[in-house]
Design goal:
Length: 191
């Protein structure tokens, strides 16, 4: 004779059975509360996104022109910042060491270098120096004409320093900077 197998996972007289029912009820209440909070937040998000959707409308919508102008200004500002960053990076990548080495190689004991003003965008450089006399100045200009990284070297200005008892000559040399070794980007900008 076959007897039925009786399996009772939660015995009816167990005190844990009521605890299990209570946990299920609390879980259902918490789930219902989370669903309610989700619907409320979805509704709030929809209301918050409404102005954003208005921004996406064509310019023919009234009031859109002010928002579009603001967006255009932000985009223009971003483009200007990107151009400035590219220009700065381009200047950092220029062969400064070679230029300074070439200028130093042309120095003499009779000339003191006072300043170098490069303009990488125009590929020009102005060198301010002071020589003991006119002959030393002219010799220095001739030496600068032989510098490999400079082209079209010429004396831009000169002035004798009369207040100094030795009367040195302060002068400025202008030249084109050949910038050999500088690569150009497709847009013509220096990289």
């Amino acid at each position: 004779m076959i007897q039925d197998l009786q399996i009772d996972f939660i015995p009816r007289k167990s005190p844990w059975r009521w605890l299990a029912y209570l946990c299920c009820a609390v879980g259902l209440l918490l789930a219902a509360q989370q669903i309610r909070a989700y619907w409320r937040l979805s509704k709030q998000l929809g209301t918050a996104e409404e102005p954003w959707h208005r921004l996406q409308l064509p310019a023919a919508v009234p009031g859109r022109s002010l928002l579009a102008a603001h967006d255009v200004r932000q985009q223009e500002q971003l483009r200007n910042e990107q151009k400035a960053a590219r220009r700065t990076i381009g200047q950092l990548l220029l062969p400064w060491d070679g230029l300074f080495r070439d200028i130093e190689s042309a120095m003499s004991a009779q000339v003191s270098l006072l300043g170098i003003e490069p303009d990488p965008e125009r590929k020009e450089i102005h060198i301010t120096a002071e020589a003991k006399d006119m002959d030393a100045m002219l010799m220095y200009v001739r030496q600068m004409m032989n510098v490999s990284s400079l082209r079209n070297v010429y004396l831009l200005s000169h002035q004798m320093q009369l207040q100094d008892p030795q009367k040195p000559v302060r002068f400025v040399i202008a030249a084109r900077w050949s910038m050999s070794g500088v690569s150009q980007s497709p847009g013509g900008e220096q990289r």
